Amino acid sequence: MTAVETPWAASLSDYRCFGCSPHNPHGLQLVFHEAGDALECTFQLGRTFESYPGMVHGGVIGTICDEVMGNLIVLREGRSAFTVGIRLRYLAPLSVGEEYRCVARVRPAGQLYQGSAEVLDRDGTLLVTATGTFQPVDMDRAREHMHLTDTETEQLSMRMERP
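The chain above was modelled as a monomer; its predicted structure follows.
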Protein backbone atom coordinates (compact mmCIF):
# COMPACT_ATOMS: atom_id res chain seq x y z
CA MET A 1 0.00 0.00 0.00
CA THR A 2 1.15 3.50 -0.82
CA ALA A 3 1.18 6.06 1.97
CA VAL A 4 -1.07 9.09 1.57
CA GLU A 5 0.56 12.42 2.36
CA THR A 6 -1.53 15.00 4.15
CA PRO A 7 -1.56 18.56 2.77
CA TRP A 8 0.00 19.78 6.03
CA ALA A 9 3.03 17.52 5.79
CA ALA A 10 3.50 18.43 2.13
CA SER A 11 3.14 22.19 2.63
CA LEU A 12 4.35 23.19 6.07
CA SER A 13 8.03 22.68 6.89
CA ASP A 14 7.44 23.04 10.64
CA TYR A 15 4.31 20.89 10.83
CA ARG A 16 4.29 19.26 14.30
CA CYS A 17 0.95 17.47 14.65
CA PHE A 18 1.08 15.05 17.59
CA GLY A 19 -0.86 12.48 15.58
CA CYS A 20 0.59 12.46 12.09
CA SER A 21 3.61 14.71 11.68
CA PRO A 22 6.79 12.88 10.77
CA HIS A 23 8.66 15.88 12.27
CA ASN A 24 7.39 15.47 15.84
CA PRO A 25 9.75 13.11 17.70
CA HIS A 26 7.30 12.92 20.63
CA GLY A 27 4.24 12.22 18.48
CA LEU A 28 2.58 9.14 17.05
CA GLN A 29 3.86 9.71 13.48
CA LEU A 30 0.86 7.94 11.97
CA VAL A 31 1.05 7.04 8.28
CA PHE A 32 -2.23 6.82 6.38
CA HIS A 33 -3.28 4.52 3.55
CA GLU A 34 -6.39 4.58 1.39
CA ALA A 35 -8.54 1.47 1.68
CA GLY A 36 -11.48 1.79 -0.71
CA ASP A 37 -13.85 4.37 0.80
CA ALA A 38 -11.88 4.35 4.05
CA LEU A 39 -8.60 5.66 5.39
CA GLU A 40 -6.49 3.50 7.67
CA CYS A 41 -3.24 3.34 9.56
CA THR A 42 -1.40 0.64 11.42
CA PHE A 43 0.32 1.43 14.68
CA GLN A 44 2.38 -0.20 17.39
CA LEU A 45 2.94 1.84 20.52
CA GLY A 46 5.68 1.56 23.12
CA ARG A 47 5.65 2.25 26.82
CA THR A 48 5.76 6.02 26.24
CA PHE A 49 2.02 5.74 25.52
CA GLU A 50 1.20 3.42 28.43
CA SER A 51 -1.45 3.85 31.11
CA TYR A 52 -1.72 0.79 33.35
CA PRO A 53 1.38 -1.41 33.02
CA GLY A 54 1.48 -2.97 29.57
CA MET A 55 -1.68 -1.23 28.34
CA VAL A 56 -1.98 1.61 25.83
CA HIS A 57 -3.60 4.77 27.26
CA GLY A 58 -7.21 5.12 26.09
CA GLY A 59 -6.77 8.82 25.33
CA VAL A 60 -4.03 7.99 22.86
CA ILE A 61 -6.36 5.53 21.13
CA GLY A 62 -8.97 8.31 20.95
CA THR A 63 -6.37 10.57 19.36
CA ILE A 64 -5.62 7.95 16.71
CA CYS A 65 -9.31 7.52 15.84
CA ASP A 66 -9.77 11.30 15.69
CA GLU A 67 -6.71 11.69 13.42
CA VAL A 68 -7.82 9.07 10.92
CA MET A 69 -11.41 10.35 10.72
CA GLY A 70 -10.37 14.01 10.48
CA ASN A 71 -7.66 13.44 7.89
CA LEU A 72 -10.07 11.46 5.74
CA ILE A 73 -12.22 14.61 5.47
CA VAL A 74 -9.18 16.67 4.48
CA LEU A 75 -8.03 14.13 1.90
CA ARG A 76 -11.44 13.28 0.39
CA GLU A 77 -13.26 16.58 0.67
CA GLY A 78 -10.36 19.02 0.39
CA ARG A 79 -11.49 20.87 3.53
CA SER A 80 -10.20 21.35 7.02
CA ALA A 81 -12.61 20.19 9.68
CA PHE A 82 -12.44 20.61 13.44
CA THR A 83 -13.66 17.92 15.81
CA VAL A 84 -16.91 18.94 17.50
CA GLY A 85 -17.41 15.73 19.44
CA ILE A 86 -16.05 12.22 19.66
CA ARG A 87 -17.34 9.15 21.44
CA LEU A 88 -15.34 6.01 22.06
CA ARG A 89 -16.26 2.53 23.14
CA TYR A 90 -13.50 0.27 24.38
CA LEU A 91 -14.33 -3.42 23.94
CA ALA A 92 -10.93 -4.69 25.10
CA PRO A 93 -7.65 -3.14 26.23
CA LEU A 94 -4.80 -2.65 23.77
CA SER A 95 -1.38 -3.95 24.73
CA VAL A 96 1.86 -2.03 24.43
CA GLY A 97 4.08 -3.47 21.69
CA GLU A 98 1.26 -5.11 19.69
CA GLU A 99 0.31 -4.03 16.17
CA TYR A 100 -3.17 -2.63 15.52
CA ARG A 101 -5.07 -1.08 12.64
CA CYS A 102 -7.47 1.88 12.71
CA VAL A 103 -9.95 2.17 9.85
CA ALA A 104 -12.17 5.25 9.42
CA ARG A 105 -15.05 6.32 7.21
CA VAL A 106 -16.87 9.65 7.00
CA ARG A 107 -20.03 10.97 5.41
CA PRO A 108 -21.60 14.40 5.03
CA ALA A 109 -24.40 15.10 7.52
CA GLY A 110 -25.94 18.45 6.67
CA GLN A 111 -23.34 21.11 7.36
CA LEU A 112 -21.22 18.68 9.40
CA TYR A 113 -19.44 15.40 8.77
CA GLN A 114 -20.06 12.21 10.71
CA GLY A 115 -17.17 9.81 11.10
CA SER A 116 -16.72 6.32 12.39
CA ALA A 117 -13.55 4.43 13.21
CA GLU A 118 -12.63 0.95 14.35
CA VAL A 119 -9.46 -0.35 15.92
CA LEU A 120 -8.71 -3.99 15.16
CA ASP A 121 -5.97 -6.39 16.16
CA ARG A 122 -3.93 -8.50 13.71
CA ASP A 123 -6.66 -11.15 13.65
CA GLY A 124 -9.35 -8.59 12.79
CA THR A 125 -10.93 -8.63 16.24
CA LEU A 126 -12.76 -5.37 16.96
CA LEU A 127 -11.30 -3.68 20.06
CA VAL A 128 -12.45 -0.05 19.89
CA THR A 129 -15.20 1.83 18.08
CA ALA A 130 -15.39 5.59 17.69
CA THR A 131 -17.85 8.05 16.25
CA GLY A 132 -17.07 11.68 15.62
CA THR A 133 -18.72 14.86 14.45
CA PHE A 134 -16.64 17.36 12.49
CA GLN A 135 -17.27 20.99 11.54
CA PRO A 136 -15.76 21.92 8.17
CA VAL A 137 -14.12 25.33 7.97
CA ASP A 138 -13.15 27.42 4.98
CA MET A 139 -9.51 28.29 4.39
CA ASP A 140 -9.84 31.85 5.74
CA ARG A 141 -11.16 30.60 9.07
CA ALA A 142 -8.62 27.77 9.15
CA ARG A 143 -5.88 30.31 8.50
CA GLU A 144 -7.07 32.43 11.41
CA HIS A 145 -7.19 29.52 13.86
CA MET A 146 -3.93 27.96 12.69
CA HIS A 147 -1.99 31.23 12.41
CA LEU A 148 -0.87 30.50 8.84
CA THR A 149 1.17 32.88 6.72
CA ASP A 150 0.05 33.97 3.25
CA THR A 151 2.51 31.53 1.68
CA GLU A 152 1.39 28.63 3.89
CA THR A 153 -2.27 29.38 3.16
CA GLU A 154 -1.60 29.44 -0.58
CA GLN A 155 0.37 26.18 -0.48
CA LEU A 156 -2.32 24.43 1.57
CA SER A 157 -5.08 25.72 -0.68
CA MET A 158 -3.34 24.29 -3.73
CA ARG A 159 -2.74 20.93 -2.04
CA MET A 160 -6.34 20.70 -0.89
CA GLU A 161 -7.95 21.52 -4.24
CA ARG A 162 -9.99 18.66 -5.59
CA PRO A 163 -9.65 17.85 -9.30
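The chain has a mean pLDDT of 91.
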